[in-house]
User: Fold these one by one.
Assistant:
Number 1:
Amino acid sequence: MANYYQKEIETASPEQIRAWQNERLLKTIQHVWDNNAYYRQKMIDRGVLVGDIKSVDDLWKLPFLTKDDLREAYPYGLMSAPLSDCVRIQSTSGTTGKRVVAFYTQEDIDLWEDCCARAIMAVGGTKEDVVQVCYGYGLFTGGPGLNGGSHKVGCLTLPMSSGNTERQLQFMVDLEATILCCTPSYAAYLAESIHEKGLRDQIKLKAGIFGAEAWTEEMRRDIEEKLGIKAYDIYGLTELSGPGVSFECEEQTGMHVNEDHFIVETIDPDTGAVLPEGSRGELVFTSITKTAFPLIRYRTKDIGVLKREKCSCGRTFVKMSKPMGRSDDMLIVRGVNVFPSQIEQVLLTKGLTSNYQILVDRVGTTDSIEVKVEMTPELFSDTINHISRKEAEISDALKSMLGITAKVSIVEPKSIIRSEGKAVRVIDKRKLYG
Ligand code: DLL
C-alpha cells in the first residue's frame, strides 16, 4: 500500500496539477518582476513582459537563469523578499569561485520540508520510524532538509550529520534506526564497516534515502544487498531549496518531481530549445511556490529524461530518470565523452566495489586515463597472475563501454579514501597544468 504525506496533492489529476502550475507561475513571475531587478532586467533584455506569460505554455519565452547569474548577483542580487522576511541561508559546497547562496522565508522552509516529508513517506516512513540523518548539517542542504522532513512525518530523528562512523554505527544499533539518509557513497562505506564489525544482524534498517551525487543501478543493488534494505534515490539542489525536488517511490523507477512546487523542462544544452518529454536533455526547473529565492528556468546542467506514465504508487507527478551525470562531470578524454557513472557500472558488474578513483592526466599532447579500484576480499588471496587477468578483463569491458583504453589498477583494500559526503571520484591532473 502506497504511503503518502499529502495524498490529495501527490495523486492529483494532471489537469489539477496544470491548474496549480498556471496559477502559481503567474504569481511567481509577478512577484519576481516586482521584487527582483536582476531578473526583471533579464526579461526586459529578452523583450518579455509580465503580461506575455499567461500559462505554462508560455514558459519558453522566459530567459534562463544559470549558476553564473547566481554568482554575478551574489550575495543579495536575486533575493526577492525583504531581508526582514528571510530567516535562513543555505549554500553550495562550491570549491571554485564564489559560493552560491540561497535564501528562505519561514514559509519557504516549511514547503521544502514538506517535499522531504513526501520523500520519507514514499519509502514507507511513518511516525514509528527512527530516521538517521547523516547528510552534513550546516550550509549543506542535505541534513537540514531531511531533518525537517523527518520531523514533519513525526519520526524520531537522529541529527547525526556526516562523519564519525563509529558513532553512527553505535546509534544505528542502539537506537534501532530504520531509515538511513546519506550520500550513496557514505552508505557504501557504512555497509562496509557494518560487515567488518559483524553488525549486520544487529541493524534494523529497512530503507535508505540516498542522493546528492550520481550513483548507478549497480551501486543501488550492491548497497541493498549489503544492508538488507531498499535503497531509494532523492534529488535536489541548493538553488531550488535542497533535497526533495524529486524523490523515488516504491517502484524505484525514477524520481517524482514535486510538480506543485516546481515546473520541470528538458532542453537541448547547446541550443536551449525545449525538448519533448521523453527526450534526454538538460533539466531546467522553475520554482512556483518560493518567495525569498524563486528561480525561473534554472539550468541545472544535470542531464536526464522525463517520463509521464502511470505509476503503481498512484502518484501523478512526472518522473525524472537518475541524472545521467552533470555536463560538468563529463570528462573528455582523447576526444571521447566519459561519465564516471559508466566506469562505476563496469566495475560493479565485474564484481568489484564502488571504492574507485579515476585519474586523468596528459603526457605531451596525449590524455591518459587510469582507473584505480580496490581489491575485494576474494581477490586479496589470489595470485598476482589472477589479479592481472582481472585488470585486463576490466580494461576490455571499459574499452567496449567507452571506446577508449583505460589503464586499470587493482589496489590494496582501504587505499582509496572513503567519503563521508559527496565522493571525489575524479582527479583530473590536466586542470593543474591550465
Ligand atoms: O546535493 C541537495 C541534496 C542533498 C540532494 C541531499 C539529495 C540529497 P547541491 O550540493 O547544491 O545540493 O548539489 C546539487 O548534486 O545539481 C546534481 O548534480 C547532484 N545531485 C543531487 N541529487 C542527485 C541524485 C544537493 N539523486 C547537485 N543523483 C545536482 C545524481 C544528484 N546527482
Number 2:
Amino acid sequence: MRFLVTTPIPEPGMSILRAAGDVEVPNQRLSAEELRLRCASGAFDVVVAQLTDVFDKAVLENATIKGISNYAVGYDNVDVRAATRRGIVVGNTPGVLTDATADIAMLLMLATARRCVEADGFLRAGGYQGWQPELLLGHDVSGATLGLVGFGRIARATAERALGFGMTVRYTVRGGALPADRLGHLAGRVQYADWDDLVRTSDFLSLHVPLTAETHHLVDARILRAMKPTACLINTSRGPVVDETALVAALRAGEIAGAGLDVYEDEPALADGLAELPNTTLLPHIGSATRSVRSTMAALCAENAVAMARGQMPPHAVNPEAWR
Ligand code: DGY
C-alpha cells in the first residue's frame, strides 16, 4: 500500500500508516500542480490530506488514486462529485471533534461578550489601576438567546452547553422544524425558528453549516444589518459562510456588537481591518485542537486510508457510492 501524506498527522496516525505500507511525506507543501501530478502518477493508492489541500476537477481529472482520507470532518476542499465520478472515495473524521469544537463556540461567545481579549490586553499594558464600577462592561451570556444555524452534531453539542448557561436555544435548518425523534433528548428544550426570525432575535448567532454553494456568504451585509445591534456573530464552521468584508463594515458601524471567529474567508489572511477591531475574538482555526482530539482524528484518518488502500469501504466515507 502506498500513501501520500501531504502533511504529517499526529500519532498514532503515522504509525498506523507506516505499519500498513509505504508512506511518502513531501518536504514542503505541494502546489496544486504537484498534487495533480502525484495523484495521476499511479504511485499512490491513497492521499492523506489536509483541508488546505484542494482537490478540484483539475487535480482529480486524471487521478489514479483509490481514495482521499481528509484529516478533518469538513471536506469542502474536495470536489466530491468529481471524486465520485472518478471512483475515488473520500473519508473524513466525524464525531470525535464535536465536543472540542462546541467548547470553542462557547469560548468565543463568552470571550466576545465579556471582552476577554480587550481586558487581557488592557491589564498586560498596565492599564489596570483598580476595580471600577464601569470598567470593560460587556453583554450577558447567561439568559441570552442563542441562534444556531444548522443543527448537526456540533450545533447540538453547543446547544447542550448553552442550556447549561440558562440560554434560550433556537435553531434553524432547511426544510423546517425537526420532528421530536430527530431532536432526541433536546426535544422540548430547543425551539425552531425560520432563518429571518433567528437572525432578528438572536443575541448570539452561531454558524454550524458546511460550506457549499448555498451557504457561501450566507451571512452578508443584509443579514448583518438585520441582526440586533447588541448581537455577536460566532463562526466555528467555515470562513466563506460569512462575507468578511461586510462583517468588518458592520462591526465598524456598530450594526452588531461583536464577532468571535475561528475560521476566515481566505485563511490564513484576514479581511482588511478585522484584526484592528477591538470587538472581535479571533482564533487561528483551533476548534478541534486538543491533544486527545487531534490524535483520535489521526487514528480515524489513518484507518480510513488503510481501508481504502485495501479496497475496503472505510469506516467514514462521505461518498460510499463512488465504489458502487
Ligand atoms: C474540521 O475537522 O473540519 C476542522 O475544521 C478542523 O479540525
